[in-house]
Each structure stands twice: as C-alpha cells, then as structure tokens.
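Key result, reporting period 2: structure in, sequence out.
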C-alpha cells in the first residue's frame, strides 16, 4: 500500500465536531498505530533529508508532535509557534482572523536568527490563516521559511492556495 494512502486511511472524520456542520479530521489514529506513525514521519524525513535546513518550527499543538520527531530525526533544533500567552520569555505576535474574531500566534524573539532556514510544520491546513500567520512571524524574525508542511490539506477551504499566492512552498501528505 502507498504510504500516503496508508496515512489517509488512518485519518478519522468526526462529524459535527467541534460544532454542528463541521467535520473534524482527527489524526490521533495515525499517531496511535506504530506503523502508520512511522510511515508518516518517513514521508517527511525522505522529503527533507537532502534539504538544507536549520530548524523546525512546529505549530501549537499537533504540529509539536510531528515537528519534534522530525527535528530529532533530521538532527535539527525545534522551536514552538504557540497560541497567545503561553511563552514565558520575550515574544513577537502575529494576529489573524478566524470565522468569529481574532487569534494570534507567538514566538520567542530569540527563537530564530536572521537567515536561518526554517521548515514550518502543522497537522492540517484549512483556511491557511494559522500557517500564514506563523510564516509571517518567522519572516519578521528574519528567518527564511523553506516550506510549510502538513499532514492534511483541505483544498476546498483555499488555505494551501492562499499560502502559495503569498509565496510559500507548501507540502501536504494527503487531501
Ligand atoms: P486554518 O488556520 O488553516 O484555518 O486552520 C488550521 C489550524 O486549525 C491548524 O492548526 C489545525 O490544527 C486546526 N484545525 C482546523 N480544522 C482541523 C481539523 O479538521 N482537524 C485537525 N486535526 N485540525 C484542524
């Protein structure tokens, strides 16, 4: 079986969560099964093992799981992109709009050095708002965002298109 298909098959769709009309794509079964978890990480490892990277930036919270394993395997450092108010040191924030209201992501101001080549990782791209805000934050810190990587793209929500229109390279394991 194709590795991408194996990951796809393990994703659980939960109807009407977190609210009626929304189908949540749940990656916990992907992580729970040891072979699927390994296949998922191997897809990312093979894609980036020849890429010149300095750091992995993982987005709160599921981006931490994939991002930190990938950083360890590629012998890179890991830095967190967190939701507002979680980081203790000096931070820089980037706001983005949600369906109702605003949200923001934060990073420590010393998380990256100018010119560092950073891979951005999350579990899923929906509207792309989170990934785009994280990419902007990294760029404000002087980083070079090599690619935005996720397990799942929901293409009908336009996030990957939006990211590409903003000059980002995007990689996802499945749609
Ligand atoms: P966006 O900012 O692209 O609209 O939403 C993506 C962010 O929301 C990601 O950080 C992701 O973890 C979370 N998210 C939104 N919808 C889903 C979903 O159906 N499944 C999962 N696993 N995460 C989601």
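The corresponding designed sequence is given below.
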């Amino acid at each position: 079986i194709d590795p991408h298909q194996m990951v796809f098959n393990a994703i659980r769709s939960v109807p009407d969560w977190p609210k009626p009309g929304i189908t949540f794509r749940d990656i916990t079964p992907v992580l729970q099964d040891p072979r699927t978890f390994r296949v998922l990480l191997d897809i990312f490892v093979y894609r980036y093992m020849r890429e010149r990277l300095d750091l992995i930036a993982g987005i709160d919270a599921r981006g931490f799981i994939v991002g930190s394993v990938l950083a360890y395997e590629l012998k890179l450092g890991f830095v967190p992109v967190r939701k507002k108010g979680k980081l203790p040191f000096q931070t820089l924030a980037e706001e983005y709009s949600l369906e109702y209201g605003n949200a923001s992501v934060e990073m420590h101001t010393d998380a990256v050095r100018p010119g560092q080549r950073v891979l951005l990782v999350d579990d899923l791209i929906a509207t792309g708002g989170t990934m785009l805000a994280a990419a902007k934050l990294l760029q404000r810190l002087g980083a070079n965002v090599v690619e935005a990587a996720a397990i799942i793209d929901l293409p009908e929500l336009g996030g990957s298109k939006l990211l590409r229109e903003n000059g980002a390279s995007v990689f996802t394991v499945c749609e």
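The chain has six helices and nine strands. The CA atoms of residues 113 and 143 lie 7 Å apart. This case is discussed further under Risks and Mitigation.
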